[in-house]
Design brief:
mainly alpha
Length: 169
């Protein structure tokens, strides 16, 4: 548990270390007194949203994937592997999501389609990376069962996260 807490705190420290670099890219006001920026205020809002997402979605997805692991017979040390892998992959995915959208041009930031594309690509990377980690760490489990679990658990947490978003917004 100390290692998990250390990893989480280290990730948070890195995120906060990087965030001033993102904010520093905000230009000053335009010549006509207006303030338009691809980075400034939107970037701050995105980083605040990232913190909220991490506090809300990450525990939720860890819980959902832990629940789904039961019917697949993945208990004990397997659940610890699932929890740590999910925690790292979720924090990484949300961090990359905010980082990509923070530096994206304004038309990308304003488009739900571009955002959906970014999330889709990152979700595919999460599916793939979690499968590869589980395949390496869960030596006593068949590849088919790991693949089926990875698809079911990640799809359940994705759909649960979408429902959570709908109820929050």
């Amino acid at each position: 548990m100390k290692k998990i807490l250390t990893v989480v705190l280290l990730c948070c420290w890195i995120f906060f270390l990087i965030s001033p670099a993102v904010f520093a890219n905000a230009p000053g006001p335009n010549m006509d007194g207006t303030f338009e920026s691809n980075f400034g205020d939107r970037s701050r809002i995105m980083w605040i949203a990232f913190i909220c997402i991490c506090l809300l979605y990450t525990p939720f997805t860890c819980w959902v994937e832990w629940l789904v692991s039961g019917p697949f017979g993945l208990r004990g040390s397997y659940q610890k592997t699932i929890f740590i892998t999910n925690l790292i992959s979720q924090l990484s995915m949300h961090f990359l999501e905010v980082l990509i959208m923070s530096f994206a041009p304004r038309y990308v930031q304003d488009s739900i389609y571009w955002y959906a594309l970014v999330v889709l690509v990152l979700e595919v990377l999460v599916y793939l990376s979690e499968f590869l980690v589980y395949r390496q760490k869960m030596t006593g489990v068949s590849g088919k069962r790991i693949l089926l679990y990875t698809v079911c658990a990640n799809t359940a947490s994705l759909l649960g996260g979408l429902l959570l978003t709908i109820f929050i917004l």
